[in-house]
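We modelled the chain as a single entity of 123 amino acids. Its sequence is:
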Amino acid sequence: MSTAVGIEQAESGDRPRPKRRRRRWFSWTVAVLLAVWAVIRAGGWEQGTLLVQLVTVTPYGAALAALTALVALLRRNRWAALIAALACAAMVAALVPRTFAAEQPAAGGPGAAGADDQPVHQG
């Protein structure tokens, strides 16, 4: 009698899936941390040594966010993928102005071009 019940449960597939929950937990953790990073970067709230150093590696964070979104989609965790994709978009939006340099005004100070013509006053 007990063997028939075990066979029926095995055939119906009613076993819990702890690995799937763990995978979703990992996707959510990475996506939320990347979203917090993007909010700090977009809001300009990077104060203190750790946050300033974190902002310097934002290009790698954007790549990690894109990879996280892809992995979350492959694992069918759509909401975590959306959060990671939004974090990636926010980081990329912060990086785009740095990739296209604008014209810089001419520097005017000691050591600048044309500054050697004037005498230096030492006092």
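As a brief sanity check on the tokenised model: DSSP finds five helices and no strands in the chain. The mean pLDDT is 80.
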